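Target protein
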Amino acid sequence: MKLLKAFYIQPRFFYAGIGIVVLFALSYFIPILFNIAQLSILILVLLFFIDIIILFAGKHKIEATRTVPDKFSNGDSNLIKLNISNNYSYTIHLEIIDEIPEQFQIRDFKLKETISYRKSKEIQYHLKPIERGEYHFGSLNVYARSVLNIVAKRFTFNSNDMVPTYPSFLQLKKFELLNINKNSSEYGLKKVRRLGHSMEFEQIKDYVLGDDLRTINWKATAKKNQLMVNQFQDEKSQPVYAIIDKGRIMKMPFNGLSLLDYAINSALVISNVVLKKHDKAGMLSFSKRIENVVVAERRSSQMQLILEALYNVKTDFHESDFSRLYGNIKRHITQRSLILMYTNFETLDGLERQLPYLKAINKNHLLVVIFFKNTELSELISNKAETVQQVYDKVIAEKFAFEKRLIVNELQKYGIYSILTIPENLTIDSINKYLEIKARGLL
């Protein structure tokens, strides 16, 4: 039974059989073809059994392993490696079917390779998950064929790997050296001139060319009979919270990822940047309830805590309760903090319902509301309208795009900072806004 499960007749055998049937049919008109057809049957049967013998003789003729990462990065291309060894004494042709996780919904995954005798080969392919969670791989199936290609033997390797998919930690490497440098502009990061400094005194030092003349300490200068200046240190350890709206409006998809996943990926990167800038990073998510709370701290394990919290953020499809969010912030975030709120507003009416709570939060903290442009509407607006229906669609799209700009103006009117961005630029725009706030000393 095990032998039968590994035994597969190849299409070449059936094509040859069809050809023989055609020869028999033609032999009614050309009698000499009858003998050729009989001989062809004998040859086909002989080759059939020869192919079986050379493929099924011996054990462990093909060895294969799958190497997967410890975790997948959501929304990024993740590398999978297959190591195949050919222990046959001749070149073998392989057809590889890897049972990849069901979340990808790929039904036609197939790789073809040729490996010389007594050789090994590493085969690579990439997977791009678009949702967080556990991804379970099935068996690795390798179908071996000889040069005759009449039958194939299946080798099955049961390596039921499970890979958890976390928020996009690969973006952390891209923005690891986030202090403004020569390469940062390639990613869209802006150099922001610092407009001032804190008044936290550090030391008195000798004046050197370029020091701010306003910091000259005249008493120390008189004592030492040379120019001395006060040196101040930058304000550090300011709390920065990434607050993620996980209501049903954040389930809207863009390029495979939901707005919620874009926000989660951005929150992970911005938290890493905040810690690199010596501030305290924290987060929470909200909809009907407040969940996934990580208090803003600056410690070695903070990024791991935030990563685990973001891994568990899932939408509950409820209407987001901004009043509950305000009450939680009022009770638990007592120190003035920078709050980056990832949410989405499609209409001005939707904003006005939540505006009292946003103004109340902004009264005690520095609030930045981050919401999204609808890229599909932008494409619809840019396309030329040729029919009456297309004209109606374009006018409606322009109305919604205009409402987004009105939302920005409405927030600005009450002193609330905002970021209106496309999902792909969310991380870059969030980092630039944080760096601008730090440079201007607004917090």
In short: Residues 200-233 form one domain.
